[in-house]
## 1
Amino acid sequence: MRRGISPIIATVMLILIVTVIAATVGPWMLNLARDTTNQTSTDTDTALRCQNTAYDFDTDYATNGINWTPSQSELKVKITNTGTINVHNFSFEITVNTTIINIYNLTDATQRTSETPLKPGQSAILEADSVSGLVGSTLNSVKVLNEVCPSLYVEQDV
């Protein structure tokens, strides 16, 4: 006659195995749930912010809202916040001579920060910093990007 392990020992071993597995997998599952929740919260905040972010060129300013002086390499644009939240930390992405694309920051004097944002309904003239390498270039288009909603931008052909 063959003898097996007693039911009590089998139960104790089963409980130990389950406890070891739970101790190993539990913290990993908690971290996964926490990270997923945090990422979802961040994505939701960004989506809501972007939904309420809007700005556009003020076409009453210069040419379609863009003042480009190629002899002095001076680029200024005027934008209006048409959304419902404050917008700040702008940059320009410009296309010159139909192929070259550059990203430029704004001068400190015209940059809008989180402390001095472009509020809903307000307009501002933004000036590119250090575009001296573009003297005599033909400007084709300007994109105005922002940090509040990086996926949102406005673009205007010159």
Note: The mean pLDDT is 87.
## 2
Amino acid sequence: MKKSACIKTPKQEGEKTLALVHRLRIVNKDLEIQRDKKFIYIPLAKHLSTEKRETIKEQVPKSIVSTRPFPERKKPGTSLVQLLEDELPPHLLTSLPRAVDFVGDIAIVEVPPELDAYKTAIGEAIQKANQKVRTVLTKKGAVSGTYRLREFTVIAGEPKTETVHKEYGCRYYVDVAKAFFSPRLSFEHRRVASLVEDGETIVDLFAGVGPFSVQIAKNHGNVNVYAVDANPDAVEYLKENIRINRVIGRVHPILGDARQVVKSKFSGVADRAIMNLPEKAIEFVDVACEAIKPSGGTVHFYNFVNKPDSVETLKVRFADAVKKCGRRAEKTSFSRLVRETAPYQWQAVLDVKIC
């Protein structure tokens, strides 16, 4: 038990008083709020200023400032609902975001419109639940444009969008506002790297800051990975990531349009092509087919699947696109839904042997 100043208020005034003291930011969240048959006792985190005393007296006249012992909270809440249950109206708790993406020390969350007035509180709660987070960003819109970027707003912590992300022994410098990066693809980065064999030549058609390319080279000493991207900022980060992960000479950064780059430099050289551009990958199947060696190779194809379509439907679409290029999708060795990207929409992957 710990003695603390508190607000003593009649139960019938409890909800109104709780809303007021949270708005004034004077609640001691390390102590448990107490109740008896007639009153609610709210522990205070700090000495009340005259101005705040007058505000409480004016809005809740039957409340008084008192002192009493309070039990300490046994376990601080770790979920957003637990951390915000005293700050948000109960009917809004169900609207709290269920997913948070962590890129380095940045947390990225999508705050629904009905919670916009509480976005700062949500950001602070995410920081409290995750001690290593230094910045919380909320998404301002969907991924869009040639470079697959989105806008963000800082809702808590340091005003920044650049960080260092660690993943399976690799480090990636990235600015999430300047280059596309999804931590939800970490398993895919590792999985594809594990399939590569020494001596292979890989063309990463939409490399971004290099999570596929660098992971492959980090795990294989004798590979050549040509990492292509049209975004100048992404390629600059890619170059730095090649340096800090010590894969210089194995990953070759190339700024340019994948179609033009493959046609001019990498026609028929690849044992493996990576196509992580789910919005438009189907439009570049001919580019992957051109990159793959005449003797055949593997394409890792990422695309969106929208209900009522399925992965099986995607296999048919991909095989048809390959056929139009004069080649054949010989075998799909692996397929799965990677992640949900919107209601009724998933990102899927196909590993297909092209001959």
Note: The two ends are 73 Å apart (CA to CA).
